[in-house]
Amino acid sequence: MGFKIELSKSEEERAMRLHREAIVVDTHCDTLMQLIPRIGAMRREMPRKLGERSERGHIDLPRLIEGGVDCQTFAMYTGLAPNYPLALKTALQMVDAFYRSVEENKDKFVQVRTYEEIIKAKEEGKVAGLLSMEGAEPLMGDLGLLRVFYKLGLRMLSFTWNWRTEFADGLAASRTGGKLTPKGIEAMEEMRRLGIVLDVSHITDACFWDIVENTKVPFIASHSNCRALCDVPRNLTDDMLRALADRGGVTGMNYAPFFILPREKLRAGQKATVEDLVDHIDHIVEVVGPDHVGLGSDFDGIGQPPVGLEDVSKVPNITRVLVKRGYSDEDIKKILGGNFLRVFKQVLK
Ligand SMILES: [Zn+2]
């Protein structure tokens, strides 16, 4: 049986119009991992091409277009610490795979670095691709490498995946309670100067609060949900949501079931659905209003996505649920991408 969100004919038309008009932004996917040659045990299958519709994974260009996603962030995720030279090699292979994808699909895919380039891509009917880095292992603590990656198009960076880096502690290092390193503080300032968005998904709570204390510009959580609804360290507490909002930031909703539903429910056999994901959006809107939530799928980095969000072509179901729950046109467009665009306009250069 197919999953269906019950809408009236006029609601369905409204949902599709809003989805088309909105600039839909997704701030995190791990698709680049599937486009590069095999690295150690990281991936077992042959690389696929972004331009070709695949039965594998969750994101490719045909499905991005079908799902009406206008701006997709592609993360360089290496996760290989402490083998840092290999992390750098992997990141550069991912940049190459991204560039080749752009070259092979010039008519429908374009690299973007600024807010203006995202708007232009939408006007030209092309999918905008933004490069990010999840975990700073490839930088090896070197701000010179940060500047080189900026020139390659890096516009979003999380200091950590789950490990400790030269800049900060990832969640696996939580017990020491450490703040950012002096190098991390320096990197924040260099990112502000260059115009790279700081992403706090995967960082420890202690480092999160240190960033709140020290940031001069809005920061984001590219793929983190609410701890109030699903109590895992990868999600944000209500106090964190308030601090993020207070600094003008946004958090992107992660589609991984284990960040959507509590473990007990999943263990009891309950399947997460797109409705359960929108519960997290409802909660954030309740706590901090509609200006601080967006989409950060984590597609191609998660196992089985929720029912109704099986791959990126199903993203319009989120808009359908938002319509069904009575959100205004304005708020729906903010949630689908307007909020992240506000941060991009302020920070990216
Ligand atoms: Zn992640």
Describe the structure.
The protein has about 350 residues and is α/β, with parallel strands linked by helices. The protein has a single domain, classed as Metal-dependent hydrolases (TIM Barrel). The protein has helices spanning about 10-20, 60-65, 85-105, 115-125, 145-150, 180-195, 205-215, 240-245, 255-260, 265, 275-290, 315-325, 330-345; strands at about 25, 70-75, 110, 125-135, 155-160, 195-200, 220, 250-255, 295. Strands 1, 2, 3, 4, 5 and 6 form a 6-stranded parallel β-sheet that branches. The protein has a 3-stranded parallel β-sheet with strand order 7-8-9. Helix 4 links the parallel strand 3 (about 110) and strand 4. The protein binds zinc ion (ZN). Zinc ion binds next to loops.
Biggest β-sheet: count, sense, barrel?
6 strands, parallel
Small ligands present: zinc ion
Q: Would you identify the regions where 5 or more consecutive residues have pLDDT less than 50?
A: none
What is the string of SSEs from the N terminus onward? HEHEHEHEHEHEHEHEHHHEHH
Based on Cα principal axes, name the global outline. Answer: globular
CATH class: Alpha Beta
Strand percentage lies at: 5-15%
Summed up, the domain count is: 1
Our measurement of the CA-to-CA distance between the termini, rounded to an integer number of angstroms, reads 47 Å
Query: At CATH's second level, what is the architecture?
Result: Alpha-Beta Barrel
The CATH topology is given as TIM Barrel
What is the count of DSSP helices, taking H or I runs of 4+ residues?
A: 13
Mean pLDDT over the full residue set: 96
